[in-house]
Amino acid sequence: MGLIGNALYYSFHPMELRAIIQWKVWHNPPHERNEKNETENQKICFKFLDKTSRSFSAVIKELHPELLIPICIFYLVLRGLDTIEDDTSIPLATKEPLLRDFKDILTQDGWTFTGNRPEEKDRELLVQFNHVITEFMNMKPEYQAIIKDITEKMGNGMADYAIKAENDDASVKTKKEYDLYCFYVAGLVGEGLTRLFVEAGFGNPALLKRPNLHKSMGLFLQKTNIIRDVREDFDDNRRFWPQEIWSNHVDNFEDLFKPEHLDAALNCSSEMVLNALEHAEECLFYLAGMREQSVFNFCAIPQSMAIATMELCFRNPDIFKRNIKITKGDACDLMHKSTQNLSVLCDTFRQYTRKIHKKNTPKDPNFLKISIVCGQIEKFIETIFPTQSADAANRKVSGEATAAELQRKREEDENKKDVYFMMALMGVIVVVVASIMIFAAWMMGARFDLAFKEITSGNFRPPVKSQLEHPEL
Amino acid sequence: MSAKRRTLELGNVLVVGGCGFLGWHIVDHLLNFPSETDPSYALPKPVGDARFEYPTLGSRYPDYHSTVSVVDLRTTNNRLPGAKYYDGDITSVDSMLEVFRAVKPDLVIHTASPSMIEGNKPLLHKVNVEGTRTLLEVAGGEHGDWGGKCKAFVYTSSSSVVHDTQSDLKNVNEEWPYIRGPAQKEYYSETKADAEELVLKYNKKSPNEMLTAAIRPAGIHGEKDTTVTHKILEHGSQASDRVLRMQLGENDNLFDFTYVGNVAYGHLLAAHRLLASYDLVAAGKGGPLDYERVDGEAFNITNDSPVYFWDVTRAMWALINRVVEPEQVWALPEGLLETVGGIAETVMGLFGKTPRLTARTVRYSCMTRYYSTEKAKRRLAYLPVVPLDEGIARAVGYIVAQKQADAGKKTL
Question: In terms of Cα–Cα distance, which of B229, B221, B268 is closest to B28?
Answer without folding.
Answer: B268
